[in-house]
Design a protein that fits this description.
Elements lengths: L1 E7 L3 E7 L6 E8 L7 H14 L1 E8 L9 H17 L2 E6 L3 H11 L4 H24 L2
Parallel strand pairs: 1-4, 4-5
Antiparallel strand pairs: 1-2, 2-3
Helix pairs in contact: 3-4
Length: 140
């Protein structure tokens, strides 16, 4: 059984997956959509991933503001969380994702990844940061 990590954005969904032991997170893909509210293809792709990897839990990044307040993105993310729970019937946990994108950007810069390539993988890397944070805290 594996855990899925998700970074939910207005036009993209970064996807990461744990190894079978739940020790490490690896980036899987970025799912894109043209319309923020059209989640049909996103849900179809997530269903394929959940079935292929026998996912038993989802960790969804919760985009709180730096001062710990909740804005419009948190509200939209919680709506998405409820949809995932309805669609898949598995636990969906939220995880404070503050600084996950910044951490991913720093890692990509340190790895000397070109700016154009960074844009293609940043959401997937943010999902890795979200999932790895969860895994690290829950391995103890």
């Amino acid at each position: 059984m594996r855990i899925l990590g998700l970074d939910y954005g207005s036009k993209t969904l970064g996807v990461a997956i744990s190894d079978p032991f739940g020790w490490t997170a690896q980036g899987l893909e970025t799912i894109t959509r043209k319309d923020e509210n059209d989640l049909v293809r996103t849900i179809i792709r997530l269903r394929e991933i959940i079935e292929e990897y026998s996912i038993n839990k989802i960790v969804l990044g919760l985009p709180k503001n730096m001062n710990n307040t909740e804005g419009e993105r948190v509200e939209k993310t919680l709506v998405f969380k409820r949809r995932l729970e309805r669609e898949f019937g598995i636990d969906v946990l939220t995880w404070d994702e503050r600084l996950s994108t910044i951490g991913a950007q720093r890692l990509l810069i340190e790895a000397d990844v070109h700016k154009k390539k960074q844009k293609k993988v940043i959401d997937k890397m943010a999902a890795v940061f979200i999932l790895q944070g969860y895994l690290d805290l829950n391995q103890q």
